[in-house]
Design goal:
about 210 residues; alpha/beta; Rossmann fold; 2 domains; 7-stranded mixed sheet; 3-stranded antiparallel sheet; 10 strands; globular; binds glycinamide ribonucleotide
Amino acid sequence: MKSVVILISGRGSNMRSIVEAGLGANVRAVISNRPDAGGLAYAREHGIATAVVDHTQHPDRAAFDHALAQEIDRHAPDLLVLAGFMRILTPGFVEHYAGRMINIHPSLLPAFTGLHTHRRAIEAGCRIAGVTVHFVTGELDGGPIIAQTAVPVLAGDDETTLAARVLAQEHLLYPRVVRWFLEERLTLQHGRAVLRDEATPAAGALTAPGADD
Ligand code: GAR
């Protein structure tokens, strides 16, 4: 069975959505850089191994990333899933997991990389916001896009209401993408995310990521 390690920094609702989608058996470990991350308790309660690699206990990013990679590689995961993991990663770390590390970001990338995405989308007058899942590269929130879901920005929305609408879609999208990878349908090829659609092999077996499955 293909395996997953999930990295979190906080409440871990995306991690939870992956477990609740029936992928819990694939999740070898949930690792946080914060000892107080709320999601750790949920993982423990569901019999999933947890670990903390506290970034404040390491002198620099390289030392932290090295310790983190050691903890991850104990589980030899096929896929590394960043689920609200709020750390900038070093090039060496990114290279080590190239093609097998994905991230979820609460905007329609390439718009609104970084923090406060919902506030910035409202301030910019966007009519549409959303969520992106992408392969992780050295560029912050910038790797090849795998899948996106759009939601409307409604009159009267504030950061909280828009974030909730986007988060509901995050919880649907991330488990789908993780499943594609575990089913060996999703790969990174020449800098693009490629989804093989086994439902329509006669049509050339290749289709755009994000198509219905
Ligand atoms: C999610 O909205 C996720 O998209 C975002 O952090 C939140 C984590 O929530 N990630 C980023 O902003 C990454 N740049 P969660 O801990 O409940 O899954």
